[in-house]
Design a protein that fits this description.
Elements: H1 4-36, H2 56-83, H3 87-101
Helix pairs in contact: 1-2, 2-3
Amino acid sequence: MQTDSTGGVRAARTLLSCGVAAGPIFVLIFAIRMLVHPEFHFTRSEPSLLSIGPLGWIQIANFVIGSLLVIAGALGMRRVLRLSKGRFWGLSYLESLEASMRPIE
């Protein structure tokens, strides 16, 4: 039987792995859909346009799965930062990273 700390570390590591895998999985499925859809132009179209049509459910599932993986990664980050000594600096780093991604208005 596992102790709580070992199970907690394993769960946090699994959740963080989900967050790491979210981007590549989304891009892979998007690229496959883009290649299958010849009228889709990467420079002129948005990824959500692939959700229209008979195979649109694939792109919708891609959005949902990608979102759930990102949320799982965020929960893993929360677990790690809550238990670590450097949680203030970790959260400050994440907030500055998020602020740098905002569009300038």
